[in-house]
Structure formats: C-alpha cells, structure tokens
Amino acid sequence: MTTDPNQLLHLALRIVDELVPTLVSARNAGGLAVHTKTSGTDMVTEMDRWCEERIIEMILSDRPTDGFLGEEGGRREGTSPVVWIIDPIDGTTNYLYDVPGYSVSIAAEIHGEVTVGVVADPVRREVHSAIRGRGASRNGMPIRCSNKADPATALVGTGFGYQPERRVEQARVLTGVIGRVRDIRRMGGAALDLCAVAGGRLDAYYESGLNPWDIAAGGLIALEAGARVTDLDGQPSWTDTVVCAAAPLHDSFRQLLVTAHS
Predict the structure, then answer these.
(1) Is 15 noted as a catalytic residue in this protein?
(2) Global confidence as pTM
(3) Backbone angles phi, psi at 116, to 5 degrees
(4) Are strands 240-246 and 227-230 parallel, antiparallel or unpaired?
(5) What is the pLDDT of residues 192-247, one digit of tens each?
C-alpha cells in the first residue's frame, strides 16, 4: 500500500470535510451526552466517540492495513508503515460550552515520523495542513510563523491540565512567565494553539502533560511554518512538555520557561 504523503493528506482532508458539518450541527442542536474520564473536569461527549469511530472507519475503508492511535481508545497496530494519530475533538470543553477553540486533529506517521498533519477549526471554517518538508497552509494558502525574537514583546499561549495538582504547578510556572512576555492567552485547545504559532497569531506556545494526539498534527504544521517544537531541554518533542515558538524567539523563550520551572 502506498505511503505517498499527498494521498494521506487528501484522505485526511476528505475526512474532516465530511465530519465538521456534523459536529457543528450536533453542537447547535444541544443535548449532548457527557461523561468524564481522568477527572471530573476531563470531559468526553458522545460526539468525541462518534467522530473517532467515523475517522477510523474512513481510514480503514481506504487503507485497511494502517495502524491508528486515538484519544478515545482507538488502538491498532497495522501491517503498513503508516500510523494515524487522531484527536476527534481537541478542546472538548470548548465544544461542550460552545466556545471557539476546538478542532479535529488528524496526523499520519510514516515509519515513526509524523509526516502529514491536518487540523480543522469548525468555528473559523479554517483547515490547517502540512506535509513534512513542504511547508504549511491554512485553507490552501501558505502560512509562516512570526519573526519575533524578544520574549518581552511575545504573545504566548498556554494550557492547563485536568488534574488539580497539575493545574497548581502550571499556575506556579505561569507566574514566572507572565511578567516577562507581552501577554498570555489560554484558548483551550493544543492543536489550534500550535496552528496559531504557525500562522503568527501567537508568537509562542507551551504546555505540559500533553499526549501524542494533542501535538502531532499541530506540531508538524508549526514546524513546517518555521517554528521550533521542542521539550524544555531543546530536544524535538511530540509528547508531554512542548515549547513551540518562532525560530528567532525559541531559545530565549525556552530558557525563560526553564527558569520558571526551577
């Protein structure tokens, strides 16, 4: 089975094109069934589960030997070199409360390297996408991150975890950051925050406690738009702690975070 990134991107785009109108209609209709996962604030809706199931169905219909890893429990080791990393609704709390900042995030790894990423924003009607080595786009138009170099004038995004003790620690770190940057934004969805860096709507973004499905697609899009995506040690990162910033800003912003964590 082919591993042509163009075909993988076409499939991911076709999937989000089908799913987004249904997600919006269900949100507008209200009455969503809601459950909790890791804590009382970690919510999942019936649409999260339906959306992941539908994504997997569409992938397997075209590519029955691929593997996949989904936030809502979808797991399979395939026999092809391709693994799909799926977040059916990144920013479920925003979705539930009808707040902008939720998205559908689909990435494809080839031989263990994230190679294709698509993040669809139903509210703004934007689709961000990237193929490794070929740049990033929003609604088909190329995007680039900012050229910001000074943390003091950087607009920074962040997020908070679901466990109370993690939130307290993240708030402590934030107190070491907020006085040294232009301002902070907390929009509630890692995938779109990474895309915001890619398109220059944020100069930097950081968060800890993330999972592969939070980062894979948006991280690739940011990388392909000229940002750097690392951990606190400056190494490439696709899980847990992520520091994403415009390339001229990254090292100084990362050092600011290291100091704030100490």
Answers:
(1) no
(2) 0.94
(3) -130, 140
(4) antiparallel
(5) 999 999 999 999 999 999 999 999 999 999 999 999 999 999 998 888 899 999 99
CATH number, domain with residue 228: 3.40.190.80
Choose the catalytic residue: 48, 66, 90, 207. Answer: 90
Of the candidates 87, 109, 121, 203, the residue annotated as catalytic is 87
Of residues 19 and 42, the one with the higher pLDDT is 19
Active site residue 184: no
> What is the token pair recorded at 55?
């994504």
Check if 89 is active-site. yes
User: Contact, 139 vs 20, CB < 8 A?
Assistant: no
Do 239 and 193 fall within a single domain? Answer: yes
Closest by CA to 241, choosing from 212, 214, 203, 209, is 209
133 and 11 co-located in one domain: yes
Best mean pLDDT range from 20-34, 68-82, 88-102, 179-193: 179-193
